[in-house]
Design a protein that fits this description.
The chain is of the alpha/beta class. It contains 11 helices and 8 strands. Helix 1 runs parallel beside helix 2, helix 5 packs across helix 7 and helix 7 runs parallel beside helix 8. The chain starts with 5 loop residues before the first strand and ends in a 7-residue tail after the last helix. About 40% of the residues are buried. The structure holds 2-phosphoglycolic acid. The site of 2-phosphoglycolic acid has 13 residues, from strand 8.
């Protein structure tokens, strides 16, 4: 996967058949000329198949799932497997989102198993990492993030990060309306890339590292302006077609060196 700006809309637990269909149709019509950046949307799993039908003739928007189980099949009531997601044309899958770490007590070892199963079937994991407010205040952001990645590398090896994505999302910023400063995010992203480079320079050069946390059309350019920020994971603003379209268009027009 070539490094390019990647914008993903995470719709979380929002919408119904009607609103999801309308939002999808609007985005499909808006994004027919997107070619420089990559775009994906992550609807609730119930609606993946509906959204897929509208995306069929549109290669510009990819499907992303919000979660996956660690098993491929069997007696695991309520779970969704990586192969089922693949069956629905899903390309990316969010794992380790802080809302799952917090509400479902998912830890790094469990998230690494999800990473493994996604690689096994050929889906692209978006490994979400980030610190909480207390960790931020005590200055351990970088070590928290590195440790979250280290668990995957220790279990699966550095090769697993090829064709994978990391999303740095400070927990205190998600849904708060307060984004982290672009300069501080750049520092975290650089430390992540340097850490990966200590294992393998080409994996570090290629990996997409997104930022997420109260991204809006107004603040997104400043994130793209930073050297090591390769895209954004957008929650609230992705539920509004206009806002999400503005963010994607900003990515499309951005003069990142690797876009040319
Ligand atoms: P937000 O969510 O944009 O609403 O802060 C981001 C996320 O949870 O991925």
């Amino acid at each position: 996967m070539r490094r390019r700006l990647l914008v993903i809309g995470n719709w979380k637990l929002n919408g119904n058949k009607n609103t999801i269909t309308n939002l999808t149709i609007t985005l499909v019509n808006t994004f027919c000329n997107i070619s420089k950046c990559s775009v994906a949307i992550a609807p609730p799993v119930m609606y993946l198949d509906i959204v897929k039908r509208y995306l069929l003739n549109n290669t510009h928007i990819q499907l992303c799932a919000q979660n996956v189980d660690i098993h491929l099949s069997g007696a695991f009531t309520g779970e969704i497997s990586a192969e089922m997601l693949q069956d629905c044309n899903v390309r990316y899958v969010l794992i380790g989102h802080s809302e799952r770490r917090i509400h479902h007590k998912e830890n790094d070892a469990y998230i690494a198993k999800k990473f493994f199963i996604l690689k096994k079937v050929g889906l692209i994991p978006i490994l979400c990492i980030g610190e909480n407010k207390r960790e931020y205040d005590s200055g351990c952001t970088q070590s928290i993030c590195i440790n979250q990645i280290k668990t995957v590398i220790k279990l699966l090896g550095i090769e697993a990060l090829k064709n994978s994505v990391i999303a740095y999302e400070p927990i205190w910023s998600i849904g708060s309306g307060v984004s982290a400063s672009p300069e501080s995010v750049q520092m975290v992203h650089k430390s992540i890339r340097d850490y990966i480079a200590s294992y393998d320079v080409s994996v570090a050069d290629e990996i997409i590292i997104q930022y997420g946390g109260s991204v809006t059309p107004e603040n997104v350019t400043q994130f793209f302006d930073q050297k090591d920020i390769d895209g954004v994971l957008v929650g609230a603003a992705s539920l509004n077609a206009n806002s999400f379209a503005m963010i994607v268009q900003t990515a499309e027009k951005h003069k990142k060196l690797y876009l040319s």
